[in-house]
Amino acid sequence: KAGVTQTPRYLIKTRGQQVTLSCSPISGHRSVSWYQQTPGQGLQFLFEYFSETQRNKGNFPGRFSGRQFSNSRSEMNVSTLELGDSALYLCASSLDSLSIQYFGAGTRLSVL
Amino acid sequence: ELKVEQNPLFLSMQEGKNYTIYCNYSTTSDRLYWYRQDPGKSLESLFVLLSNGAVKQEGRLMASLDTKARLSTLHITAAVHDLSATYFCAVVTDYGGSQGNLIFGKGTKLSVKP
Fold it and tell me: B14-53 as b/e, with b when 16 or more CB fall inside 10 Å?
């Protein structure tokens, strides 16, 4: 059974650009969550999608958005990138929001 | 605003010893997660605790939840080097009418020495 796949693994962007990250969950999992990890702020929850609907959202500005497709794949978009957006972005999938989550390897974003 | 405090933040222990990591949180919640992260790696889910008094065990790790005390513990029994990692707890809080927002502790960096 394939695990959670995040693409790309590494990204370098410049300030002001936008970026789209992709997450393919484990087959059959309908819940996909996104997290940001930085040395300064630690781990922070971005949002959770379930059956194409955003169910939960963390305290991030509107520049951070996401969506989920009918096949449960999810994308996360960050517009007008800032230096502080440099981080490891983690995606996790689960059967539902009360089940154990399985994490992808992450996308490391560097904003220059 | 929900605050999640883990202690200790750093823990150096010898193989074979027992120890407990504590996770305190400041407002009502009945859902708590524990995760493990190895250096340079992604997160691994360890436990999902869904109710007061919940106890879960996997190998040398046992987690419990006391919602009245707003406290979860992660107990390590007879530590081995392979348990060296950073452990995070995360608490779900009701937020703006949605089902919840996860707030993470800062993590406990565990180092098990022979």
Answer: eeeeebebebbbeeebebbbbbbbeeeebbebbbbbeeee
Contacts of A100 in chain B (CB under 8 A): 45, 48
Nearest CA among B67, B55, B66 for reference residue B28: B67
Dihedral, CA of residue B53, residue A31, residue A34 and residue B47, to nearest 10: 30
- Whether A97 has a pLDDT exceeding 80, the answer reads no
Chain B residue with the nearest C-alpha to that of A4:
B42
Interface of A with B in 6-65 (CB under 8 A): 33, 35, 42-45, 48, 55-59
Residue range A19-36, pLDDT digits in tens:
999 999 999 999 999 999
**Taking CB atoms and an 8 Å cut-off, how many pairs form between chains A and B?**
55
CB B48 within 8 A of CB B102: no
